[in-house]
Write a structure and sequence with these properties.
single chain; 161 residues; alpha/beta; Oxidized Rhodanese, domain 1; 5-stranded parallel beta sheet; globular
């Protein structure tokens, strides 16, 4: 029997996941402790908060990368974020500006893709942090999201370094 495939990108699935995660976080204090221990055990991978990130994106100080599968990126992403799925990141490192800080995000605080991305980026000498929130958390707080294959708001990673 084949397992029915689903995508976190589907709005109902992501809304359910966000609500389920929130319920767990509210009812089980251990979840926050587990998350903190995981990120602490993986080195100083401190998160960037949303307000700070928006200011830094607008000023061109940072490059934001979405390390989720491209299908999820197309369904909704932070405006200006580059779609660089985790499985492609190592191959596409040359596309990233070395003189800019990089902020990686994925499906939220329990997703390890952004943590793995930051670890890889830092091992290659790049300044990197993770955004703890998912794009759906971002939207739920009233921040804008974009859909489709969006241009990068003039912050193309291929421009002069």
């Amino acid at each position: 029997m084949a397992v029915q495939d689903y995508a976190v990108a589907e709005p109902l699935v992501s809304d359910f996941f966000r609500a389920f995660r929130g319920l767990g976080e509210n009812r089980l204090a251990e979840l926050d402790q587990i998350r903190r221990r995981f990120h602490h055990a993986n080195g100083d991978l401190s998160p960037v908060d949303r307000d700070t990130l928006m200011k830094r994106v607008r000023s061109g100080e940072v490059v934001v990368i979405d390390v989720r599968p491209v299908e999820e990126y197309r369904t909704g992403h932070i405006p200006g974020a580059l779609a660089i799925p985790m499985q492609e990141l190592k191959r596409r490192l040359s596309e990233l500006r070395r003189n800019r800080e990089i902020v990686a995000y994925c499906r939220g605080s329990f997703c390890v893709l952004a943590t793995d991305a930051v670890r890889l980026l830092r091992s290659r000498g790049l300044r990197a942090h993770r955004l703890e929130a998912s794009v759906h958390d971002w939207q739920a707080l009233g921040f804008p999201i974009a859909t489709g294959d969006e241009p990068t708001n003039g912050h193309s990673p291929r421009r002069a370094r």
